[in-house]
Amino acid sequence: MLASLILAAAIGYLLGALPFGYLVARVKGVNIFEVGSKNPGATNVRRVLGSGPGNLVLFLDVLKGAFAAGWALGPFMIGAGATSLEMGVTGLVAATLGHGFSCFTGFRGGKSVATAGGGFAVLFPAGIGIALVVFLVVVGTSRYVSLGSCLAAASLPVTAFFLHQPTLLVVSAALVACFVILRHRANLSRLLAGTESKIGQKAATPAGSVPPKP
Asked: How far apart are CA 94 and CA 115, in angstroms?
């Protein structure tokens, strides 16, 4: 059982650590760690480079989270010694950490909203559906992506609890929500100060901003 969980964690972390935001921006000649909010997530990529690259990063980040949580639910699980839920949750949590602290970018990373969302879409689709509604309502009314992300994340463990999901899923949702909110602490400080960027605001790309040499 331990070996199978370690395998799920390793695969999940490496998938989560894939720095799609950094790579997509680099193709465009931009070091995403030096522009906008200096975050490699889809929101900053969208602000800096537009909706096309931003949507691509969003899709890829969701996909890696879904795969990290979902690969173990199939035939790979036969004889593994752990339940599919244990494997899936392990992969999801590891991918969330991998996105936030990527070994490929000096342990810098994003806020893991899309990656965690992709994982929970596999393990708890009803919860993600409710979280998406929360996100859309909050962003639609406030125009703050950060606030919508935090409240959507916070809704997951609450939904899991009231829908009588397994304790492991409730606890993992709570841990991931805390991680996401912690990663947004700078955004929350700016919200309180009234300086947080609203959706639709385009970040300026400094002249001569180019990706560093590998």
From this structure: 10
Position 40 in a domain: yes
Give the total number of structural domains in the chain.
1
Interatomic CA distance for residues 208 and 30, integer angstroms = 9
Among 172, 18, 49, 185, which residue's Cα sits nearest to residue 111?
185
Rounded to whole angstroms, the Cα distance separating 102 from 139 reads: 28
Question: Which pLDDT belongs to residue 74?
Answer: 59
Check residue 200 and give its pLDDT: 67
Is residue 94 within 8 Å of 177, Cβ to Cβ? no
Model pTM score: 0.88
* Angstrom distances, CA of residue 30 to CA of 27, 166, 198, 202, 213: 7, 43, 22, 15, 12
- pLDDT tens, residue by residue, 162-185: 999 999 999 999 999 999 999 999
Structural domain harbouring 168 = 2-101+110-193
The answer to whether residue 213 is domain-embedded is no
